Description:
By secondary structure, this protein is an alpha/beta fold. The protein has helices at residues 22-31, 47-59, 87-90, 100-107, 126-134, 166-176, 192-202, 234-247, 262-270, 308-316, 336-341, 371-383, 394-397, 403-409, and strands at residues 3-7, 12-17, 37-41, 62-66, 71-75, 84-85, 109-113, 138-142, 145-149, 158-160, 183-186, 207-211, 214-218, 225-229, 248-254, 274-277, 281-285, 294-296, 320-325, 345-349, 352-357, 365-367, 387-391, 413-416. The chain is globular, with a radius of gyration of 21 Å. Helix 4 (100-107) runs parallel beside helix 6 (166-176) and helix 5 (126-134) runs parallel beside helix 6. The chain has two domains: 3-18 and 232-416, Enolpyruvate transferase domain (UDP-n-acetylglucosamine1-carboxyvinyl-transferase, Chain, Alpha-beta prism), CATH 3.65.10; 22-229, UDP-n-acetylglucosamine1-carboxyvinyl-transferase, Chain. A hairpin with a 2-residue loop joins strand 20 and strand 21 (352-357). The N and C termini lie close together (9 Å).
Amino acid sequence: MQKLLIDGKKILSGSINISGSKNSTLPILAATILNKHTIIKNVPFVNDIFTMLNLLKFVGLEYKLSKKKNLVEVLNHNKNINTVAPYKLVKTMRAGVLVLGPLLAKYKKAKVSLPGGCAIGTRPVDLHLYALKKLGAKIKIKNGYIFASANKGLKGTKFKFPSISVGATENAILAAVQAKGPTIIDNCAVEPEIKDLINFLKKLGVNIKVKNRKITIKKSIVEKKISHEVISDRIELGTYLIGGALTAKKLKLKNINSNLIRKEINILKKMGVKMNIKKNYIEVFKSKNIKNINIKTEPYPGFPTDLQAQMMILMTQAKGLSKIRENIFENRFMHVPELKRMGAKIDIRNNCAFISGPCSLTGAEVMATDLRASVSLVLAGLIAEKRTNINRIYHLDRGYQDLEKKLIKCKASIKRV
């Protein structure tokens, strides 16, 4: 099994091109089931994307990719379609369940394995199924699979989610765009990745409007050849911003839209992080005298749970006691025992982490437990004394494209073995 070796205390400098958003590309790839010819640009070639492409191939679609151009072309000839998403392709990636909505909407049936992914919480699919039932689907769960059918097609309706869910909102949209009649969904997630999916579907003639947390969908898809450029990855951007604040003489982050991370920028400013912010790039500098802060994770536009672990590393270097309240996932502090092995002073009480700083970190043998936890260990390794060995880095490869190459280019000492 591969591991990363990081020698810390190196001063980073240079520039990093931020990749396209993984969390935007995955639902858009699922949406290609609904169209005949789709070109997607700015695709991040990480393992989750390859898993989704293999799932589309299993269903019966064709794809071509160009790593050089970060481009994927997907064709659906509507022949020999297999409306099944098997366990072997869904077990490693929760986003696999997103094919449920489009398969059911277009082909009136679907059999999809209950999903896997990072072990950061239960994350049940009940809200996905709630939405599909409201649209007229018949659903049963048997032998670890979701069996869904709508023999006469889905019907537009009006409903409100009991709680906010990104994945369930995406699945509901992907199903509703083929339903008969208009659909109004309330209490939706409104992340930039969902708005990117909506902009993609608008190119196929769907009339979608978003107001506050209400999404109104009219008109069905008109199949045609379209191209779409995915937005930049705001979580990758936030990760490298924090990394730059910890270690960089000057780090320039390009290929971005800084408007997507306004909340994160404001929090970093309050902590004393020095940045030069433009719309298409941000320069960040190693910041002394980091201030402590209290934050809580929330649905967008609140602070994202996907940046909680990385922010914790910055808090270890802040003066005083910082606090993170985790409101999204009940098991998202699994990186804390590993950080404690490196000397971090962190106390967990219920869904809150209390971080005392500043403290010196020392390299150790550590284990990645999920995607964002693994990158937090990379950030910790960059500022630690001596060498850090990070095991189980396959989690990293699910969501960060060319992480070592990007950091090595900026003078980090990092090696995969």
